Amino acid sequence: MRKPFICGNWKMNTDRAGAVALAKATAKVAAEVPAVEVGACPPACYIEAVVAAARGTPLVVGGQNMYFEAKGAFTGEIAGPMLKDLGCRYVILGHSERRHVFGEPDDLISKKVRAAFAFGLTPILCVGELIGERRAGKTNEVVQRHVTSGFAGLAKEQAREVVIAYEPVWAIGTGETATPDQAQDVHAFIRGLLAGLYDAGLAQAVRIQYGGSVKADNAGDLMAQGDIDGALVGGASLTIDSFAGIITEGAKAKGL
Ligand code: PEP
What we know:
Layout (H helix, E strand, L loop, with lengths): L4 E5 L6 H17 L4 E5 L5 H8 L5 E4 L16 H7 L3 E4 L2 H5 L5 H13 L3 E6 L3 H5 L3 H12 L5 H4 L3 E4 L13 H18 L2 H6 L1 E5 L4 H8 L6 E4 L6 H14 L3
Parallel strand pairs: 1-2, 1-8, 2-3, 3-4, 4-5, 5-6, 6-7, 7-8
Phosphoenolpyruvate (PEP) binds next to strand 8.
């Protein structure tokens, strides 16, 4: 059985004291709901403080991005070995804000995914369509491109570990959520893609999160879907009441 994974993406929010307080509160909930893996991806400058706050608890920590090179003249970037050194287990790659605000193309994200494994990190690979692409009936085409390029060159044992976050761009930070049926359709499509790229067993093993305006009052309906294994949560991960609600509703929906 796939262990549900609910992860907060704090984006460019919090300050040092706020990050530590949020990490401690999130770690407490993670310990209370051990059937769900709970993660936090703080701003890079607070990772060390958050890792320290999470020490000895089940809360796992991730970076929000990384460059694919191990070191060198790449001003402003953060390397995988640095994230690893700080205590990260995961790294979000291909988030829609990286793709659409910072213009990251598929081949760059693909290099980052392979580099994450080389540096001992597990990627959370974000995929998802823009509203215009959905309206034009291109959702599956876009998701297929993101998944195929994201998994390019991965050995089966690596592919099995990747966490995919299906995040329709029109649902991120907008308050508009994909319906459980819309999300389930894309998650099932992704599992079919993985079966084609690898095999049916691997497709069943990979965890696929949903992301896009997940809140405590919609998390249960979303996670009740068979192919939705958790959530990547932006805004609602910044306050512990809403994030705790998502975790407990998600666990309940999975019968845990
Ligand atoms: C995200 O940034 O990954 C996200 C899903 O944001 P929000 O939950 O705020 O829509």
